[in-house]
Amino acid sequence: MKKFLITLIILFWSNQLIAGDYYLKGATPATLMEMGFKLVEVTPMPESSYYDVIYTFVKDKNIASCKVTLETRSRGRPYENHKCYNVTNAEN
User: Is the distance from CB of 59 to CB of 47 less than 8 angstroms?
Assistant: First the structure.
């Protein structure tokens, strides 16, 4: 399990050129659920300056993960920044 989490963390912070083929543009945890993915793990990352959460989803042999940064903007409005990746890089 630790190797899997380390792999995900490296994927999220690696160069965009390397992760470009894996990036799911416009995807959010909600859209992955609508596509039939099942949520299997939620990993909080409290060591960052914002509150980051990694959601891991599975559908058949596909694994997708989303890194969501939760923060507040001016005037106290919440802001969510989603970056979702198809970890297995397989077509749905």
Answer: no
